Each structure stands twice: as structure tokens, then as C-alpha cells.
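Sequence, C-alpha cells quoted for completeness.
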Amino acid sequence: MPKSESSAGASPNPILEAIGHGEAADGKVRVTVSINGANDAVGFDPRMMRQSADVLAEYVCQALRAAHEELFGKLVEIDGASVEAVRKKVDDLQASYTDRMDEYQRTLDDIGRRLAE
């Protein structure tokens, strides 16, 4: 008898499903982060697009820091390990996200150039 789709896969990993949310500029910049990047997102109030690329980038960084802080707190709860052990795991995983942050910065720079035209 074939397995149903719901029972075919392994049980979900709560660490991979953990999500952190962060905001800046009174909620006009919103960021969502996850361990594997599958749920990562950046959202802007359309009025934020009037800001310079540097200002917008700073708001994104603030929101990212808040989102990562929330995610880290959830990981400590889920893992049940010491803060140091979870911090090491997170540090290892975040190394892979450096490229993603660079991509966000390139996107913001491109938006800034377009707005300046």
C-alpha cells in the first residue's frame, strides 16, 4: 500500500521551520528570516521608496537585526541547548547568508539608481 503524501516525508524539523520577523522605520520596512532561507522576505511601504539607497539599506539592516534576534530566541527555545551551542550553529548558518545580504544591497542600490534617474 503506497504512503500518502502527508506520511511520505519525514516529520518537519522545527529548527528549519523557525521564522524571525523584524521591522524598522515604524513598520514601513519588514523582514522575515529563516534558517534555510525558504521563508526569507523583505517588504517596504511604497513611501519608503522615496528614501535614498543608503537610508533604505540602513532600515533593512535594522529590520534584519531584529528578525535575526527573534529567530535566535526561537532557536534557543526549540533546540533546548545552551545559548553558546545555538550561537555556534547560527554563526555557521549565517555565514551562508552573507551572499543573500549582498544581493539585497545590490537590489537596493539598483532601486536608488533608478529613482535618481
About this structure: The beta strands are 19-24, 29-34, 41-44. Confidence is low (pLDDT under 50) at residues 1-8.
